[in-house]
Design goal:
The protein has 268 residues and is of the alpha+beta class. Helix content is 18%, strand content 19%. The protein has four helices and ten strands. The chain has helices at residues 2-22, 117-120, 169-173, 251-267, and strands spanning 40-41, 44-45, 72-76, 91-97, 105-112, 124-128, 181-187, 204-208, 214-219, 221-224. The chain has a five-stranded antiparallel sheet. Strands 6-8-9 form a three-stranded antiparallel sheet. Strands 1-2 form a two-stranded antiparallel sheet. Helix 1 packs antiparallel against helix 4 (251-267).
Length: 268
């Protein structure tokens, strides 16, 4: 019995290792802390380390974005979503527009049919550094928008947003903690100027479960060259789903935990 248990444990470890190898995590900083042995799912840390006051990346603090040209962008989440393991299909959008003074970006987040945060939450969402490809593969969006190369090893300090990753919307403005979520805020560290390292207009937004699994994602598109919402999209985008690493879904973290328990049982 022990030998069978050990073989199963090794198989589980091989699966986790294969997923990690297939989607390396470019957000883990090389310095100052070694990250050997830190588990990741789909190229993201499963659990951030504790906040470290004043911690920044090699690029220092993020820069407040002044003089942004008037523009409105919107990301509408598609059907079906990338990973349906939670049993829900998230709907809604993230709208971002230039405020009247041209400093930063105003964001309006309107989401419905979110998975139960008591089971899968708190949910987090971020702007990622690449757009979603035509097959809807959220993993292909890679890491968070991070011009200062801060990384994710230490959690964002909401009281010091200039030290956070530019794309870490949840870290700076709060996690998603309900099945319906409507919030609005201004983020000073995003740009509507093409070519700026803080520009998000050709990037994507991704919603994750608490174990970092990517549930759904959508690209920002310009809906108006002014600071108004402009016409609403005619319909929710429909995609041909990517059948890849995310098919393991939320259970990836459970698999990792189960493998550890199995190995411990073998040696006890």
């Amino acid at each position: 019995m022990y030998s069978s248990l050990f073989i199963s444990a090794l198989g589980g470890l091989a699966l986790v290792h294969a997923q990690s190898e297939a989607t390396p995590n470019p957000t883990i900083p090389a310095i100052p802390t070694s990250t050997v042995g830190i588990p990741t799912i789909e190229g993201a840390l499963v659990y951030d380390g504790p906040p470290v006051i004043g911690y920044t990346g090699p690029g220092g603090n993020a820069t407040i974005q002044n003089g942004n040209p008037a523009a409105t962008f919107q990301a509408v989440f598609p059907t079906p979503e990338f990973d349906s393991a939670t049993g829900t299909t998230i709907s809604g959008s993230v709208t971002a527009m230039t405020p009247a003074n041209g400093t930063g970006v105003m964001l309006m987040v309107s989401l419905a049919n979110l998975p139960d945060p008591a089971i899968y939450g708190p949910l987090v969402y971020h702007i990622h550094e690449l757009p979603v490809p035509s097959d809807g593969n959220c993993t292909a969006t890679m890491a968070h928008l991070d011009p200062t190369q801060r990384g994710e090893l230490h959690a964002c300090e909401a009281m010091a947003p200039q030290t956070c990753q530019a794309g870490d919307l949840a870290g700076k403005h709060g996690n998603i903690t309900a099945t319906t979520w409507n919030v609005s805020y201004t983020d000073l560290y995003l740009s509507t100027t093409p070519g700026s390292p803080y520009y998000f207009g050709d990037l994507s937004v991704v919603i994750h479960s608490s174990n970092a699994t990517r549930l759904t994602c959508a690209n920002f598109t310009m809906v108006s060259a002014s600071n108004t919402t402009g016409p609403a999209p005619s319909s929710t985008p429909t995609i041909t789903p990517f059948m890849g690493a995310a098919s393991a879904g939320f259970g990836s973290a459970s698999l990792f935990g189960g493998v550890m328990v199995a190995i411990a049982a073998f040696f006890l």
